[in-house]
Amino acid sequence: MYEELTQQASKVTEELCEKAKLKKGQILVIGCSTSEVCGDTIGTGSNLEAAEAVFAGIYSVTQKHGIYLAAQCCEHLNRAIIIEADAVPGQDIVNVVPQPKAGGSFATTAYKTFEHPVAVEEIRADAGLDIGDTLIGMHLKKVAVPLRLENREIGQAHITAARVRPKFIGGIRAKYDETLE
Questions:
Q1: CATH of the domain at 82
Q2: Is residue 18 part of a domain?
Q3: Are 38 and 131 in contact (CB under 8 A)?
Q4: Cα–Cα distance for residue pair 96/44, rounded to 1 Å
Q5: pLDDT in tens, 88-121
Q6: What is the three-class DSSP state of 11?
Q7: In 24-175, which ranges are continuous DSSP H helix?
Q8: What is the residue range of 80's domain?
Q9: CA-CA distance, 147 to 12, in Å (whole number)?
Q10: Neighbour count for residue 115 (Cβ, 10 Å)
Q11: How many domains is the chain built from?
């Protein structure tokens, strides 16, 4: 089961990075309910092994592309973010270490895996993946645009993906794809 979760997560992340046109140094925020991945109701069955499997698939892709992975904690830690310190220079760090039932198994795995993990209250990510309806929108830059992925589940969890685009504020609209090149 866990091997399959790693493969699903890797495939979804690769597709997301491609469709969102993520570049080296950008940030991908992930919210992951391992309860939902395993077929339970969000917040009822944190599973460290499932988190490690999903994290491995996602992290391998972000590492390959030079993208920073930001792991959203659960509501018990106010959806704080675990991220590499290099990704958030000058940002205020909060003093917390996530645990499987206080922060979530995915954020716990990120904290244990990252070289220099820090927790911050918020970020403005370039794209996001919500695994199990964890509500990552608060950590995306404006304006979020939904992405339709071929694969719509990891384990038994529904996934929602998004990228961001610059705001259109008056005047002539630039073609978004040109701003990505």
A1: 3.40.50.10360
A2: no
A3: no
A4: 22
A5: 999 999 999 999 989 999 999 999 999 999 999 9
A6: helix
A7: 34-37, 48-65, 105-113
A8: 2-12+24-180
A9: 11
A10: 7
A11: 1
